[in-house]
Structure formats: C-alpha cells, structure tokens
Fold this protein.
Amino acid sequence: MVDIGDATPVRAWQRRLILILLLAPALLWLFALIVLPHVQLALLSLRERVAPHVYQPSLAQFHTFFAEPLYWQVFVRTALLSIVATALTLLVAFPIAWVITKVARGRASALLFVVCLIPFWVSETVRALGWLILLRESGVLPALLVKLGLTAVPVELLYHDATILTGLVYTSLLFMVVPLVSSLESLDNSLIEAAYDLGASGFATLKNIVIPHAAPGITAGCIVVFMLTLGNYLTPNLLGGKNSQWFTELIYTQFIVRFNWEQGAAFGFLLLGLSTAIVAVGLRLSGQRFVDVMRRS
Amino acid sequence: MSAAPSVSTPDLSVQDLRKEFAGHVAVHNLSFAVQRGSFFSILGPSGCGKTTLLRMIAGFIEPDSGEIVIGGRSMRAVAPNRRPVNMVFQQLALFPMMSVGENVAFGLARRGVGKLERTRRADAMLERVGLAGAGLKRVDQLSGGQRQRVAIARSLVLEPTLLLLDEPLGALDLKLREHMKIELKQLQASFGTTFVYITHDQSEALVLSDHVAVMNHGRFEQLGTPQQLYYEPATAFVAGFVGANNRIFGQLKSSDGDIAEIETSDGWTVRAKKSGPIAAGDHVEAFVRPEAAILERDASQLPANQAHYVGSVQSLLFDGANSAVLLHEDLTHFEFRVALPQTGRFADLKVGERIYFSFDPRRAICFPSHGGPHG
Amino acid sequence: MIASLPRPAWLRTATVLYVAAFLVFLFLPLVIVGVFAFNDANYPAPPWRGFTLDWFTGSAATGRVGLFHDTELLGSIWTSLIVAVWVTILSVTVGTANAFLMERYRFPGKQVLSVLMLTPLVIPGVILGISILSFSSRVAELADDLFGLDLDFLRPGLPLVVLGQFSYIATIATLMISARLKRFDSTLEEAALNLGASHAAVLGTITLPYLRPALIGSAAISFLMSFENFNTTLMLVGSDAPLTVMMYGRMREGASPVLNAVSLFLMLASAALALTMMRGGPRTEAAKSAAAQ
C-alpha cells in the first residue's frame, strides 16, 4: 500500500495491481462524467437537425448566436457584470481580510473570521429568499424607506442590475475572503513595519509590499469568484427576474424549455470558452500556474 | 547604575521611560544616554523588556510615560516613519518581492529620490558592505550573512542618526554568527553610525559593544563597558548572566575590611570581596570566575596568602583555549569549575585525580542573596 | 495599517464602522428569513402581525399548511438527504483513492490526470449538468438502438443528480484528503513496518486514523454541498425535486412563510454542522473546508 522506496517489500505485481485499482475510479469518474460528456456536448453543438433523427455537421448554432443580437448581447452583459461583481467583491472583501489578519488580534481575529464564514454554510436558496423578502416592493427595505420618509410609496428594489450585483457579491464574498486571509496571513508583519520604518506611506506599502505579496491570493479569489458568478443561475434569476438576462438562463431555456439541445450545447461551450479565457488571462497577468491557484483556493 | 561618560551630545537620550502591558511592567522608568558613533547593546534574557524598549525607540510602541530624545529632538508624537531611526528586524524583513537593489533603494524611493540617483546610491552602498554588483539578485539567492548586510545597507543608505538592531544574528547558525559578529563591528566602525543592538547572547554584547546595558525585569541591572560588566558586576544577576561563573550560596561569617568570609550550608568556607553593605549572618551569593582560580598538584606552589582547597576531577571539558575542569571539593562535594591554563600544563589531568586549587578573594565577589538553594 | 503601527482615530472609527456594516450585510438576509418564519401573515412581508407557529405546525385543517404537514416539502428534504448520502459516500471513497494515487504513486500521465482532476471546479455547474444530461441520454439512446435495453436511470432523475453532483464534489474531497496525506510523516509507516505490522495493518492502524479528520471533514463538506447544490441539480432533475429545486419553484410562484420555516431549519442544521467542524479542527482546517465550497 505504501510507496516508500525500496525499503518495503511490496512486490512489483502487487504494486501494479494496487495502482490499477486506484486508477480505475479516478479514470471512470473523469472520463465518464467529465471528458466524454464534454466531447458529446461539443459534438452536439457542432451539428444541425435537418430532418427528424437526421443530423449533419454544421456551425449553424454558433451562427445563430452571432446573428441574434439578444444572444450575444446577453453574453457580453453577463461577462461585464461578472467582472464588475468580481471587482466589487474584491473591494468589499479586502478590508475585512485585512482586519482579520492584521488589525484584530487573537480570539477577536479568529471569531471575526468564523463569523464571516457562517452565512456561507447556508444554502444559496435561503440567502436569495432573504434578499427577496428584504428588497421586493412589499418587502422590508421599501417599507423602511417609506417609514423614514425617504420615499412616498414603496419602491421596487428587485430586478435592477444593482440588485443582481448585490446578490452576486454577497454570494461570492467567502470565496474572496478565504484566499485573501490565507495570503495576508503569510505576510510577515515585520515587512510592513520595515516599509513603514523606511518611510513608506500606507499607499506605498500597499502597492509595493502588500499587493505583490497577496497577488496569488487575489488572483485565486478573483478567478474563483468570476467563474462562480458567470455560471450562477439562481441569484440573477431570482433577484433580476425577467430583467436579469443572464447567459445561463439562455442555456436553461434552450435545453429544458425548448428542448433545442444543439443550441444549448453551443451556448454552453461559449460560456465555458469565456470562463476559460478569462481564467487564462488572469493567470497570465499574475504569472501563476492553474494548479497552484486551484490548490490555494 | 553608572552613566556613560559624556564626550559629546548623545544621539539617543531616554528619560524615565515606562511601559506597562495589562498590569505587567515591561519597561520600568528607564533613563540612559547613548553617545554618538558608539555601539550600544541591551543585553537580557527573553521577556526582560528589551524588545519593548527597542520598539518604543523605533516608535512602534507608544510609551506610557517618559521621554525619548534622538539627535537632540524629542520624539514625542513623532511617527515611526518620521524618526531619524531605522531598524534591522530580527528576521531581517527583506522584501522578497523585490531585488536586492530595490530593497536598498526602497527608502530612497519613498523620499522621492529619482530613479537614477537612488540606483547609484544603492549600488554605492552595496559596494560599501561588500556586495558590489549584487543589486540585480533576488533576495533568496543570498546567503544568510549577505542578507544581513543587505538589511543593514537598506537602513544605512537613509543615513539615520540611529540604527536599531533587533537580534539580527539570532537566526544564523553558530559559525556564521561568529563571523557576522566581527563583520558587524567592522561595519559599525566604518560607518560611524550609532548602533543600538539588543540581544540575549552575552558574547555578542561583549564582543560588539562600547557600552552594554544588562536588563532584567524591565530595569537596567548595570550599564557599563564590557570590561566593567565582566570584572566589576554590580549585581548578582549581572555576575551570573555575563560570562561563566562559579556561584556559591552561603552565610556571611565575618568581615576583614571589604573581604568577607562565607560559609556554605555544607560547611565550606570561602572568601570574597563584598559588594554593598552586608552584615554578619546575612545570606550571600559569591561568584568566582573559573579563570580566577589556580590549580597545583603540589599545595606549596599555591599562593600562601590564599585558602587552599582540595578537589577531585569530575570531568574534563576540553575546548581548546576555553578548556576547563570540573572539580568536586573534597569536604563538601561542591562542584567548582576551574579554567585550565592555556600553556597546556594540565593536559595530562585524569578524571578522579585529586588536585589543589585556590583563588584570590579580591577576584571573587559576593552579593546579598534573595534566593538560592539554601534560603 | 497593522495593529503595531500608529493608526489615526478616524481610521480606527472607520474600521469599526466598516466591520459593523459588513456584518449587517452578511447577516441581515438570514435574520430576516428567520424572523418572518414566525410572522402571523400569509406572505413573508412586513408589517409584523404578531407571533405564530402556524408555519411550522399548521395543517390543512387550520388553513395554513406548516412545515410539519407539508408532505411535498418534507418529501423533498428526504430526497435531498438520500442524494447527499450517496454523493458523500461516492466522493469520499473516490477522493481517498485519488489521494493515495496522487500522493503515493508515480505513473505516466500523472501530470495530465492531476490537472484533469481540478477541471470540474472551473466548469460552471450548469454546464456540468447539461453535458452529463446530453451524454447520458446519448448512452441510453445507443443502448436502446443496439441492444434494445431501456436504461431508465440514464433519464433525468435522482441517479443523474447524484452523478452530476459527485462529478465536481469528488474534486473537493480529493483536494482535502490529499492535503492531509501530503503532510503525513511516512516514517511513521516505516516504524510500524519495522515493528512487524503488515501493510494492511499499517493502513488500518496508522494511515487511515491519521486521515480521519480529513475524511470526516470532506464527508461533511460533501454532504453540505450536495444538499445545497442547485445549478447542476436543476439540469438533471426528474420528477422528484430535491429541496433547493423545490424551494426555487415555490419562490418563483410567490413564497409562503413555510419556506422561511424550512430555511430556518436549514440554517440551524448548517450552523450546527459548521460549529462542530470548526471546533474539531484548527482555524486553517475550518477555513480550508469552507473555502472548498
């Protein structure tokens, strides 16, 4: 069972047998559930139905995507809003990660960290329900605004882009806070003190010391948040309603509602392509390897 | 506590400085001055308050009361980055995200020195510390000693009035530490900057410093030159902490001028110089340096005016020039350490052999005792 | 600035205010959900009409069907539990095998396999769902055409939901268990072998006990993630909806406070699970587990 060099008398055929037994589940998992389904999805996206049960290779699905403004507009919109949501999440999470690692001490720091994590143990559905009750026209916040005299009648706070962004940032915070905390934690306080001692301002320290050090954590957090945001369905759908126009909704519609799997598969690949491209750009910009980043997060 | 002799205006002057942490007094109303261009060490065991003191001078900790004056200017309400003081951190705190040259030029860049000028000055500084041409290297390509030189260069390039060093040799292995001690002393001499150095290693303090303050429980036990600390310890703590010493607990039987006769609870009688007022019957502890004692195989060779003792060799501690022998005094089995003469005269000594020894009571010293094995 | 550097008063105040605002942002939606589970009204909305337990204990007889009598909702919780148990068993088993494979063996293509194992994390859940959906229906089609077999489990339904969730939760279990196995001091195994233990005994008495915290941790995380999964499940679900899909459907129709009641239960269960896990492991362990979500 153990591989500790030649010191242990495990015979070669035994080792080989164990290796095969260990490889089998991994290969079965990766090929049956990841590789082959995506190959099938690719094939699906590259064919066209010309008659019942008759298909031919075609780029028609991708052509439709570009020909129909609604489709690519939703695509671009989803990408842009995801980038904005990622940036906002970083802005909101960084000060908290800083307080946890560098300002608060001992128990206070540990407690704050745990408190920040707890909401994310609750289902996204429950969190979305909370926002619904808070924000909809008959909800808590509009009622409060009326009571405070800020608005004459209850206003609808749902179905705006800002609402979707709020919901996305909320859902994503954990995935930003955790990698930021672990990368800031490894930053030796004496480096900050040294920079300060050598005359650096807070901004110079942030720019020259903190951000270069935390770059791996920032990249990891941003990549994960971006991917999750791009692939999110529940939050944009519930908080944005008909106005959400999130790309995953198009995929759902094609696959489940219209049963147009070819088109849905093409959309799926476009989303996957976008996600991969942004991840690659992020890694390139920060000069890191995929494996390291994923391990980190 | 003696003040350092005044030759010019001090670079650092501390008056009545105090700091408490949650009821525990870390620094106890300290006052001292450090002369310009000198190497000043604060020596003490961990937890004695030396780090707190250093960080107060640097400005990272706010004192509860008292005054810190650097270069004639009060540091009250002066932020650490505005003080004419730089610090070499314990783990050096070199910036791993920058090259060696960028590390050295970092402080200059913060002062708005142009890129060309600061590169030139950083290179010149690296050359002075013997690292010419290392500017483009990464920090992790340097050896431990080189990293330390970079840390010092990074601070000295800013021409501080005072350089604070927080046990920078602590992380090095023994051999390198010995080497860096010498290098540090030479660097300080060639730059002439005032160094304030904290350490728990008495050898570092003695080798490096012009003046050493021995600190314990938030107070200075003694402030003086390394020679004063070694030969004229002011307190039992200093005698025990600085250098090797035989410590003998006992009761004062009688006095002859400033020489006291002390008897241990086992009935062994020794004589030592009194430090401070001690009356007959007081509990005392006496200290005898291993090199103050003399060995002879023939008792008649020992000085006639000194008490002679007999001991049997328990173990031989051969360490080149620092060799010593552990004896058990015959009557009381008191363990006594005697330095072996460097002539190699007793190189043939055997374990179990009986030998005579004595010491000059003027080179032994005794203090009133507040603790110890017998009360 | 860090605690040891001087911070001006305004910065201290701003820090405190920021943390307070952040915590309000985090907890407000959850608190609101909990509070409105007890509101004596037919919709979870203000104003407050008084305290009631109707949304837990009510039945058709009282006019308000509370959680304990909502057979549809209770059924979906049961469905979610069954799915989660299967996903947990599969993920932890495969994750353990993977951990040993990747940490203890060298074989051609290992590098490729290690990257491949991470990919499920970067594939959006929706796409995992549709790819598995289309592949399984293709396989079912082939089986029907070639052998005349009717493979019902390959149609949308719970078996596919389990596979879909397992497809990426296995990655997380693998990472968590590998991380611990990597830190294992293999001289302990050598010592045990040296003392005469068989390889099987070493595995049972040394290695697996050492891995126990990671096994328990990854099981808890797998269970939780399966229970809360929505994106992948939505694409693969058949007639039996797990809880998240059921709640989503009802929320779109206009939520009744019975959803608040079930949410409150979920929160309490999650909090209990989270606190047990965080108490069990040091801070980093808990953080890693949470991050793995």
Confidence is low (pLDDT under 50) at residues 1-8 of chain A. Chain A touches chain B through 17 residues (CB under 8 Å).
